[in-house]
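Hey,

Quick one before I head out. I ran the complex with adenosine-5'-diphosphate overnight. Inputs first:
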Amino acid sequence: MTHALPPATASKLAKLGIRSRFDLLYHLPLRYEDETRLTPLGQAPAGTPVLVEVPVRRVEVAYRPKRQLVAHCDGLVLRFLNFYPNQKAGLEQAARAGLAVRAYGEVRAGWFGAEMVHPRYRIVAPGEPMSETLTPVYPTTAGLAQPTLRKLVREALETEPIEDTLPPDLLRRHALAPLAESVHLLHRPQPGADTGPAWRRVKFDELLAQQLQLRLARRRRAGRDAPALPADGPLLKRFLGRLPFRLTRAQRRVMAEILRDLALPHPMQRLLQGDVGSGKTIVAAIACLVAVDAGWQAAVMAPTEILAEQNFRKFSTWLEPLGVPIAWLHGGLPSAERKRARKAIADGAAGIAIGTQALFQEGVEFARLALAVVDEQHRFGVKQRLELRRKSERAAAHQLMMSATPIPRTLSMSYYADLDVSVIDELPPGRKPVDTRLFAAARRGEVLERIRAACTDGQQAYWVCPVIEESNESDLQAALDAYEELRRELEGLRVGLVHGRMAPAEKQAAMQAFAKGATQLLVCTTVIEVGVDVPNASLMVIEHAERFGLAQLHQLRGRVGRGVHASTCILLFQEPLSEGARARLKVIYENVDGFAIAEHDLALRGPGELLGERQSGVPLLRFADLVADEPLLEAARAAADELLAADEALARRHIDRWLGLRADFGKV
Ligand code: ADP
Ligand code: MG
């Protein structure tokens, strides 16, 4: 039985994700301090904290060089720059009673001999026994001191029975240590104890909880209703008969996977992965057409205006000849037109609605939404993605999420495990690999010459400035300066500019001018990172490439190499390079395959960054490390199937214990 937490500390504990006494057991130490042995004063090594025991002789408040509490002990001075009155009283009392302190800290040589500054200490009677186990140091939060946490955890260890949620045969098969033993050991190991098996057990349990949760989510989805959309309508037939190009084998395969899902009366949740330029848009258009054929609506949402507009234009070119009415909702729309678009969506006149996330906000009502497509889903934050998932779940719509950032295997086996995945692993024919070059910033002159040569030859180029966050004023100013400078340096060339802070109409105009070839060089920020498609652009220069992330560099580079010309991507970097920047540039220079780059990215940054969870507050895995614990993840996957088949009630108990009410745990 779980006892209530003391109310005074409950809110602080909640910040640590601890909602019950039982949760305290899973609040595991970051590290340990060794208070099992006393070090004789004379033998304290420099730079390493040790535990010493010395009698207290005299206590004073000194004023030089700063007000401080000084406790003079035999052979050691303790100094406290901040102290409480009762701390002083306690030490004075100890001095009077002839007691000693056990102080934990670094012994340093001070003015008056050996001293410790701000040690942790306890007053002890002579001969008091030493701790037999290491002292845990827990992750904590402001206002919650280690001793308090230690006491709470110790009480929980004494009062909470730790029943193993896994059956003995499963433990045996996966060579897992018993739970109670593992938890006790991790909180209070003896010096030199091997905590490996205990950590393995805890990580396994966490991964298993995630696997079970995602499997149950998938099962619930399979039990819900959605419109069945058979792929036998006239529009689809006509479109397939007059496709603008021959689909690649991979495109045909994923199309079949999607159409098979749509034909079922349960909501699809499929992730369509394909490297930049692999041709996801036409697959999405085909899926939308199936919905329209069946008398339903589809929505296509993109993370930026530029991308939404590009989708709109492609969809219009392809589908308007078939008479499919498309509504286009974007920020730059005059209010009368916006009203008209919304009305068309609400009364069902629009078969397909295209826009940014505004499509799912601001009270846009769909008459009969059957399919929601999310383009470049990795650009939305974890929270937005979960919200979208919930919205289309409520609408009982099918969902197709598209991503050009390949998801490393371990991530798709964990966080994405409740989704079905289709992969376009082939580029349309005729793509030329992009030649990647690394140039130190000092070689700018050469780069300018290359731009001039390409543009004179009728090709076009991008110049990407390092505006990582469009809200960063100084970054933006630097981009504007770069634009002015390039215009001067490349006099005679037609230079355009696009960045995220421009009004939607201006942005569109700038993009269109570049798409039409009216401008030859486009100076831009990462607003062009996702999805922008101008095949005649064959040269990309990325300024301060060392400041970009791997996924960004890969996406940016994917903007070239889409047409008939051989393409080049020049990464201009500023020296000196940090170690991380050097590692990233090396990866992007040596790899063209998005999956390989994503694996490197995961190894360099960890999953939290990759999933975009940093500020999302969505709980991710606490203990398991997807890179280091991949074999354990495999084992947990197998065990999830075993456990669900053998004893579903036990499986649910296991989830509850780990996740409690955090329904979205481990999902992205
Ligand atoms: P992404 O997967 O990055 O969204 P797009 O759908 O924008 O890629 O496709 C990239 C470019 O390739 C577009 O110009 C598109 O029209 C073109 N394309 C897509 N599929 C094919 C194909 N099978 N053959 C030739 N060109 C294609
Ligand atoms: Mg795209």
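Confidence is low (pLDDT under 50) at residues 613-618.

Talk tomorrow,
K.
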